[in-house]
Amino acid sequence: MSQTQLRQDIVSPPLHSSPEAILARAQASREIIQDFVPLAESLEWHLGQQYLSQRGHKAFLSDANPVPFLVNNDGTLSCNAAAVFFASLQHAEQQGELERDLFVLELGIGLGLFARYFLNALRDLCDRHHKDYYSRLTYILADHSEQMLRDLCRNGILGDHPGRYCVRQVDALHPAERLLADVMFVGHAGKPFRAVFLNYVLDCLPAASLQISGEKVRQLCVRICVARNICLKDFTDLTARQLADRACSADTAARQDLLEVYGLFASEYAYRPVDMKSLPYGDFALEHARRSSRRLLHSYGAIQSLERLMELVHNQGFILVNDYGQTQTTREDEFEHQRFSLVSLARKPALNSGEPRQPVLSRFPHEFCGFRRVTPHCHRYRLGCKF
């Protein structure tokens, strides 16, 4: 073979190569840590949750790309929530249906600023109107992260409200497991919570990004590989095979090994076929998608959380869901997959400020539990962070 022929064999791509085939060959040489799995089952998702749980307040205050909090913690959201809560208590009292002990739950506490401003505002309202609701209230700050709760207590953010709050470690997907067994509810009949606040926590719960074309449904999947030009032995004693074995394990220590080298990985995304019966509330999501769009963010973790929280909310109570994001988007089927620090979030941008960013949820409360959804009328271009 001549040198010219040899050079052509090496340089020239095979005839009739599609873009997909070229991309597949380019990726074939990469060391795979975890092959394609749904987003909420991926290392990207699970390591992000573990990272947030371990970092506590540092995820908001110390990281180079911190989880945002300033935009929604100027006190406006808390003051408006306190006003609604106060009005609901006044109404119940007028009807002669207000119990002595009052309970409020916040899931996903962040820095605790929402709770601080809420308690400040409620105390001021009670002083102004000569009511004792504040002194009868127990505000429960609940989070899955023990470190987040420790940081809250250590930093003294709620130091002005002794006796009015307590902290509890709670899983948002199974809130009743620890709460109803708590000593504070001993002898308390009925559903205890007059209000539940969910501030940006639903976006952190498992979700599936779906593409629907007729009867065919595909969901977003993620593959984790060693990033290009990375030589693992320069950074860790673990081989790619050992890291891949750890990716198959649910052991905390194994996940910690992966978390320490996560910056060496790259994520690849592709939509893969899915049986909707394998997804929680899959039939409900598919019915909604066929009427609305070709792409859907199915927030099944958020639906499960709301469904179980509704079993804890007083019949005269309410759940306040707050999120943030763009109030406009150019395509109906877009959704936001965002990463702050190592935390992955999935949300649907609203087409306007009156539409929920989790569109499947807009029909869920009424259809599942008979709850009524109320959406505030906001200015079209405001950030969606005010009640």
Outline of the structure:
With 387 residues, the chain is α/β, with parallel strands linked by helices. The protein has helices spanning 3-11, 19-28, 43-55, 58-61, 76-94, 113-129, 133-136, 146-155, 176-179, 240-247, 252-260, 282-292, 300-309, 364-369, and strands at 32-38, 102-107, 137-143, 165-169, 193-199, 208-213, 216-226, 265-273, 295-298, 313-322, 336-340, 343-347. The longest helix has 19 residues, at 76-94.
Keywords for this entry:
5-stranded antiparallel sheet, single chain, 12 strands, 387 residues
Describe the structure.
The chain has 387 residues and is α/β, with parallel strands linked by helices. It has helices at residues 3-11, 19-28, 43-55, 58-61, 76-94, 113-129, 133-136, 146-155, 176-179, 240-247, 252-260, 282-292, 300-309, 364-369; strands at 32-38, 102-107, 137-143, 165-169, 193-199, 208-213, 216-226, 265-273, 295-298, 313-322, 336-340, 343-347. The strands form three sheets. Strands 1, 6, 7, 8 and 9 form a five-stranded antiparallel sheet that branches. A five-stranded parallel sheet has the order 4-3-2-5-10. β3, α8 and β4 form a beta-alpha-beta unit. α5 packs across α6 (113-129). The protein is globular and about 75 Å long.
